[in-house]
Amino acid sequence: MIRGTTGAMGVDYEERINFDRLRQERVAKIQAELAKTDLGCLVLFDNHNKRYATATAVASPEVDNMGRYAIVPRGGLPYIFGFGSEVAAEKLHCPWIADRAFPAHTTMYGALPKEWGAYKSFIKDLEMVLGRHGIDRRSPIGVDFLDSQLIWALQDAGYRLGDGQDVMLNARLIKTRDEIQIMKDGAATVDAAFYQIAKAIHPGVRENDIQAVASYELHRLGSQWVLNVQLTSGERTHPHPHLSSDRLLRPGDLVFLDIQTVYMGYQTCYYRTLCCGRPTARQKDIYRRAYEMLQAGIDLLQPGKTTADLVNAWPRAEYWGFKSESEAFGLAFGHGLGVGLWERPMVSRLFSLEHPVELQPGMVIAVETYAGEGMDGARIEEEVVITEDGHEVITRFPCDTLIACGTI
């Protein structure tokens, strides 16, 4: 495993990310999981799965999900069916898949009515791949997400559907050395964004102004997409609304942010809480409770422990004033992280006690906790790699104390 972070450019004088190895190892993991099933192939519409399987991407998640798909035949290399002229560009710039790039024939999430018959060309694409690889069309087809028109079309054509998302999430569970390196470098871009955020917080700035500061820094440092800069301040911090606004920051406000950006195909999920001005003793205590809860969980992130061990270190729903774990869901929480925001393993008292998952080296888990009182709430999150002998926290912006910003 590479120690720390590296420069973003490829160079001849040290090994950094090996993208050929990254692509090959990801496909190998998919095929290993596919071999455990009776599925003949995977049909992938989820943009995370397409990126993982084919190492291709387009302008936005919306276009990605709506206008393109990948097919991964059992025992074969993946195909990408791309959005219009995307295919011509891939034949020029993506040698690892150039001879398996074809134009897509989607229903545009049903925008093309069933009567127009667009689904017929989609079926032809599938049959072409199955024919090339000698796959019996009676074998079930593993799918992740399909619009209802394509579900109907496949079933009407006699295909049986299987769970392709389960295959992909299992393949994505344990990260390779290159995946972990990308995620370390991605976390470093968010470290930098929080530094700029801390400098920008002052009375009179709006929540969406701070979002713009973060987005600029993330794009400057190489993010492909900034999916969400969720910022909550002042009286809006308790209860946690999971939503941003155009509210003006005022002296004494707690401010917390969750930054979700996509760096080289991999996502971040990274909360910090700051204070606009000097925090009160009560605010410091709220923050301390969230921090101690976070550390209690992180201390248990090591091979051989389970997700049940982790949630047993956290309080029950009543701690936050709720009657059920469903109401308190997400307030003390962990989730796998990778090309997707929420990957395996998922960690919550809602399900981890009944369904414990053993922690393994190579898992990357985002751990997040929350405490609140009155109108003040604090949220903190770290991204953690499970290592052979413990864990490594890869998010570095300081969180051991509540930082005061914008003081005169």
Features:
six-stranded mixed β-sheet, Creatine Amidinohydrolase, Chain A, domain 1, Creatine Amidinohydrolase, 11 helices, alpha+beta
Explain how this protein is built.
This protein is an alpha+beta fold. Helices cover 33% and strands 22% of the residues. It has a 6-stranded mixed beta sheet, sandwiched between helices. It starts with 18 loop residues before the first helix and ends with a strand. The model has no long low-confidence stretch (mean pLDDT 96).
Question: What is the CATH class designation of the largest domain?
Answer: Alpha Beta
Distance between the termini: 44 Å
| Fraction of residues in β-strands | 15-25%
Kindly state the percentage of residues in helix. Answer: 25-40%
Largest sheet: 6 strands, mixed
- What would CATH call the homologous superfamily of the largest domain? Creatinase/methionine aminopeptidase superfamily
Any idea how many domains? 2
The computed structural class is: alpha+beta
Overall mean confidence score, pLDDT? 96
| Strand segment tally | 16
How large, in whole angstroms, is the Cα Rg? 23 Å
